[in-house]
What does this fold into?
Amino acid sequence: MYAHSSESLIKQAREIQESELLKFLSRLGKLLQGKELGHEAVDSLQRLHLILSATKYTRKLPPELHKRVKALLSSPTEQFQVLSSAVLRETVPPCGQEVNYNQDNVLQLNSHAAALLLSQAASRADLSSLCAQLLRGLESRPSEGSANSLTHTLPMLNAVLTLSPECLTEDHVTLLSKKLVDWLRYASINQGGGVPSGGFFTGPRSRQPVPTAELDGTVSGDFFTVLCVGQGFTEDQWMNVYSFSMLRHWLLTYHSVSIGNNTADTANRLQLSLSLSLSHSFSHGKTFRGPSLHCLVEAVCILDCVCGEDASLVYRTFPCIKALFGRLSSDLSFARVLLPIAQFYLNHGDMAAVDCECVWTLVFGRFPAELFNDQYLAHELLRFLRLNRESLQLRVPRYSHSFPNLLKFLAWDSPAVVDDFVDLLPSLVTAGTAVELLHTLLDLPCLSATLVLQVRSTCLPISESGGRGLLSLDAFRSQSFRGLFLFLLRGEAGSGDTIDRLSTLHELLAETADWPRVVHCAQTVPVLLHIFFNTVVAVADEKLLAHLVQVMLERSSLLLNIPKYNKEIQRVFSTHLLRLCKLHPSLVVDQSHELLEFAGATAKVYSKEEIYTHVVWVLGEYLSVSCDSRCSVRLITSCFETLEAVLFEITSSGPPPGADCPAPRVVTSLMSALAKLASRSHDLIPRVSLFLSKLRTVTRGGPVAWCSDEEDLVAIVTRGEELWSLLKAPGVAQSVLTPPPMVTTPQWHRDTNVAMPLRLRALTNLTHSQ
Amino acid sequence: MVRCFLIHTVCPVSALGSGESRVLYSRVFGPDEAAWSDRDRGLGPEERRLLQKEKISVVARQVRSAVSLSREASGRLTVETVSGEEALALQEADGGVARLRAGDPFSEETSALWLAVQSLGFALVCEPHENLLLAEGTLQNLTRHCLETLHLLGPGSEVLLRSHRIDALLSRLLPHGQLLFLNHRFAHSLEKDVAAYAAK
It folds into this structure.
């Protein structure tokens, strides 16, 4: 499909030699001088376009040639209009040939020439004068020849106001509003006559006018809409289509501009009756497909806009929207239409005092649970949540409890929606559900696997066997494990933080660890965990933080076994354990039992090195009276003994079979922690000193079984010697290893002894000219 | 409004690094936002064109990445189709929508809808508040036309040598980037016009 020939064409176009290019350009110039331009001219222009567009560096045309190509913009043959516009868009005009937006008569230009004009606009002034001319054209009646340019006026204006709405003056806005109303309300309801003789437009025929029809065949009612059909269309009917196509954008851009009471009133009534009629016909049993569905969505959005402007319209509109909801809500294939309806309920439901529960049950219940694999719905629903999260947090209590369902979108297609969840996750973190949310995030890859199994289960017949996924699929379908999977697939938070048989679940899903969806999902979890922890510190009290520390310790060895996943999660946990303990040092004393239990398990030195090191570190650092007055001598001694035992064990023999030597960092952390604890309870100092001197002796005797690298051993021993020397003077050791808060959070400018010299130095620096 | 439409590769290209994409056709609609953004005010027209090309490349790369991750996740084998089987190719196409954050690459947030037919991606970048259902339908329509008119399922290079046909198609179905609410009769009328252009 993508051929080697295309690659070489692009290469040729990029690397064309200057001489060859000049030859080609002069040949082209001569060609364009001819009277009749044929296929050769078309092909040559196309090649010129390829040469210009193949490189991002702009090539300029010789001025003569540029002029000739520009002249083709008004050629009667459309191919030349298209090609010249395309070529000129890929280059810059030579000096003296720049476009003058005030002089050129915009109304004579065809669509392709106008596109060039738009793309080259270099300032707001250019665009403003362009708009002024376009609107002048709309005001006057179009003559036969310029009929073509009229239809593209609206798309052009729409393009301008997308990027620069200030280019239209208030008068322009009023004028255009009036024209839009005209076309939307008063377009002819008669067909444009028989087969058009080329071009869009057919003049009025000398026949009986035949009315247009609705999509289902019935004759059109009061006024023409985009859903009316006919054999041919009149110009104002085309303008109706263009007007409707830009209507919502128009309303969104100029809602704050007062456009005069009369026009506003007419516009509003028109929009309302138009949209109501669309919705009305849909509520009464007509089928929706393609264009009608698009229009339905648009109509609801327009009504939402209009009611936002004029609250009095809400009472008339709501019954219609409600009826529409009633009609569509049972059929999930209309989910994309139901989202704008949900937005309408959110914006105006309070005003109309309508119960919105049924809407939220759909949006937070059925949509994520049953349509998690519809990527377009996911995009739109998550966007809806992003835009309205403050409103939802306030007015829809079930929002923050619906994360088990919402995360299904992420579990299914992480790369596409992780960005949305980075924005949404903070709003889903509440004190009441934080622990459950943490567990859910850690088990997202399991949810991912489960969703895949769920989809496969519905596709494959029960008797199907063999192939990948056999064990996990069987488990998914079996009664005995049903509860595990049902918990993962739950729709709402509140029924429990996690399940007891988590390790069983992980075993059952072991073979899913290399499934692409599971792997993609696992890659997004660390990011989300960072966001979770950053948000939760703001809403959590110490009790909750203590609970979270427990969860971190527990879950560090209870994760689905995906390569690198474990390591990444440990890294996140380590970072946040440090942060939490630094913010609330008394957490360590509070959770000392759990932390000691963790630190006392020698096996963790080998399998959970990262988090183990950090647990040891926080114990050493924060288990002191200055951090929490509840810290007793007994506690310090008990901690000391636990860590001492582990250190003895790992330095007295080689690692267990299958494991690597302990990382040097673990050994030094243990040694430092012991020294710190000893500096707070001086009875312990002799024990540490004894160990450290024994260590020095043993290592002098040659290599040791527990450290394979000589440099590492030297570093460990050096650290040991430093600590040993420090502990010889217990008072000094205490102030170094357990510094008072004043030292760790210096405020030098407040200290009477230190402040003066600092001030003097600052003043000197300021006043001395260097 | 649609900011741009592009056709680019979603298969590995030997001359490019992995993850890179060759842009075969691109069309940006409307005025260039760099012309008056505060940050880019000092740029001349050549620099602005360069900036625009880079933005298009960013879009192509993002879509390429989205396509390969989506195909990896769904695990479906790409069905090879030949000329004449455009409808089948479209049916088998992968589709999706990617969120492009503000600044990456356009100054405001945009949504990139994409369709991947074998080794080619078709992307429509539009404003996020746009009617995505309509945009989806328009993209499918455009893709079908491109596949047919340019014989993209065959080995030729018409996407490069007949790009003016795409321009003509866009000027009717997506004039200046405007998505149109076309019922089948209006659409039919425009398509007849497009066919007449291609026949000349």
About this structure: The first strand of chain B starts at residue 2 and ends at 9.
